[in-house]
Amino acid sequence: MEVGQMQRRLAEYTKSLFMEGILDAQFLQLQQLQDESNPDFVVEVVTLFFDDSEKLLNDIARALDQQCVDFKKIDAHVHQLKGSSSSVGAQRVKNACVAFRNFCEEQNAEGSLRCLQQVKQEYNLVKNKLETLFRLEQQIVAAGGSVPMIESSF
Amino acid sequence: MSFSAPSMENGFSSPRNDSFPAGLRVLVVDDDPTWLKILEKMLKKCSYEVTTCGLAREALKLLRERKDGYDIVISDVNMPDMDGFKLLEHVGLEMDLPVLMMSVDGETSRVMKGVQHGACDYLLKPIRMKELRNIWQHVFRKKIHEIRDIESHDSYDGIQISRNGSDLSDDGHMFCGEDLAYGKKRKDFENKHDDIGDHSSTKKHRVVWSVDLHQKFVKAVNQIGFDKVGPKKILDLMNVPWLTRENVASHLQKYRLYLSRLQKENDLKASFGGIKLSDLPSKDPAGSFGLQSSINVNQNDVPNGSYQFSGDNFFAQDVDTKNHEGDLKRVVSETTETKRTLTADLPDPQDMRSSQMSFDHSFGSLDSEVNFSAIPAPYSWSEAPKIQFKDEIKPLLQLEDGFSQLPLSGLHNHIQIDPLQSASSITSGLSMTGREICGPAKIKPLYAQYCSNHVSLLSPKESAFDSFPVQSKSHVEKHQSFEPISTAISSMKPQGFNLSCITDFESCQRNLISATDSTFEPFNEDLRVCWLEGDCHSMNFGLPNVEFTDYTDAGFIAEFPIYFCDTLTSDTECPFDQPEYSIVDQGLFLS
């Protein structure tokens, strides 16, 4: 596949992520922050997000597994996750966190478990999508092309 | 008085001086590594000098180690080791740096809490670049205030304060100071130790008597009973942990003075309808109390934190020596280059000119002229305030009134003055108007600011009361001018109060005032316009992630500064406007 084709594919793929609400405008902001001094900025940030999120998800799972569930603590974790997902534009993850916090407030263990599953699902989805996106970018760069900046319509 | 700006120098250390706000030293505190990285990048893009920190305690350590090493702190609200609000308090108390809070949670109550704890602004995550670009305004504003404070302190040391106004200060400068720091003078006079010692030393943390704080104060006073009141009792009732007895004592003193001035004024205004502040039908001194309590009542209308005015700073604005102006202008012009976004639909050249006329003189000349008696204008507060105050404004107005009548008149004054013959009457009472102008000039639309600024207007001079008639007269006329502002204000309301706007205005106002008297009218107009344009990025807490489009090409383009220059008597004023506006521009967005 030649570079032009790859670039088009990447553009469409990225666009679809926005259309499906998996990513929001914040992701664009990140892309815009990237420059020559920081050519891998987005990848670095997203990697931080992945690491942080996985840790948080594990903490939440563990907390829910306890005999005596500490909802305050879980809520704190979820809040954190909400914050970091908003940093990269992982919209669906963020929304799932919002729902999760409601259950925490109600001290609803079952609801919380379900929410956790939901959040995990959304997280895995965005993770996959972003990894694919980065791979596409890498391919373009490897082929000598440059990664086009998405037009912001936000 | 010689204008020395040590604080300016310290604050604007070398990298910043020439290219402010580039090189602004920001400390970012956030436990989220992702956000920390992003913010660092964003701030670097703004040409700021960034230090990141993942823990609140660490941040405090850094701050304590290098007391003058940072200009502004941005901190997340939720952190594992320490509550962001606590950190905020510490920073405010110990270092007196502007602190911005951030959170992904934009609930009004949280935001309010942030403001109550002294945050200069509350940013909602995800944070946009534009929001970060303008954080320098908070630094600038603080510097301005500090300078004013220092100036007023310097000038007031040993000044004889004559309550009857017959003994005006020796030189014009003093006079101005008096106007502004009426309370301060009083304090010096009656309470030698209070602030002076502190202020004359390096900058000390000043208590900012926000609207909210003042309301608590007033509530406590009313609860105790004004006659039986005492600082300790008030302090206990207020239940504000970081407030000291001394803070309350000095504030109480000012309040008492204000009230007695009101009393006196009421005597003077026998023929007047009494001050009618929006829904306050007050006519008598008691009305002032009513005012006070009404502040409490209307608290909800306005975000508390927006009206920042430190007790000591009340009059800071008025203290404006030429030197000071010069410096401000210098500083301002530095920023002028960078910011030229505001545009104003200057409504009425006419107005401006006339207003300028009255505002022409500097504060310095205030002392002599006061011959208001020459101006027979009926003194009716009723109209002016009414016009100006829509819901949200009311509380402000009331608050102001709580401190002094002057501000009101000043406010009106400057709004009203525009085209009228009042201008002529005003000019005769030049000093007064000048004084008034200082105060109100700032805020036409922004009462909040007005409150804060005007607190300064509480000029202690009895003669000030005389000028009221002049003021009122002038105000009476210009209702129209208020309307748009009122609209602007009311339209602002639903947006969720944009605190940053208010503070912006505040700073704009102050700056304007200090820079030039004559820019009032136009300024106001501009402010009004400014509100309507630009992005409202900062305090969007009512509107999650709402993106405001840039208005830069909305047609409001910067003609106004030029306009001003034409109408203004002094050239120096023009450059000053712009930075102010840009601040305003950023802050207010009314969709």
UniProtKB/TrEMBL annotation, chain A:
It is found in: Cytoplasm, Cytosol; Nucleus. Gene3D superfamilies: HPT domain (1.20.120.160). GO terms for biological process: cytokinin-activated signaling pathway; phosphorelay signal transduction system. InterPro entries: AHP1-5/YPD1 (IPR045871), HPT_dom_sf (IPR036641), Sig_transdc_His_kin_Hpt_dom (IPR008207). The modification Phosphohistidine is found at residue 79. Functions as a two-component phosphorelay mediators between cytokinin sensor histidine kinases and response regulators (B-type ARRs). Plays an important role in propagating cytokinin signal transduction. This is Histidine-containing phosphotransfer protein.
TrEMBL record, chain B:
It is found in: Nucleus. Keywords: Activator, Cytokinin signaling pathway, DNA-binding, Nucleus, Phosphoprotein, Transcription, Transcription regulation, Two-component regulatory system. GO terms for cellular component: nucleus. The modification 4-aspartylphosphate is found at residue 76. It comes from the Eukaryota. Its main location: nucleus. Residues 25-140 form the Response regulatory domain. Pfam families: Myb_DNA-binding, Response_reg. PROSITE patterns: RESPONSE_REGULATORY (PS50110). GO terms for biological process: callus formation; cytokinin-activated signaling pathway; maintenance of shoot apical meristem identity; phosphorelay signal transduction system; primary root development; regulation of anthocyanin metabolic process; regulation of chlorophyll biosynthetic process; regulation of cytokinin-activated signaling pathway. NCBIfam families: myb_SHAQKYF. Belongs to the ARR family. Type-B subfamily. Binds the target DNA as a monomer. This is Response regulatory domain-containing protein. It comes from Carpinus fangiana.
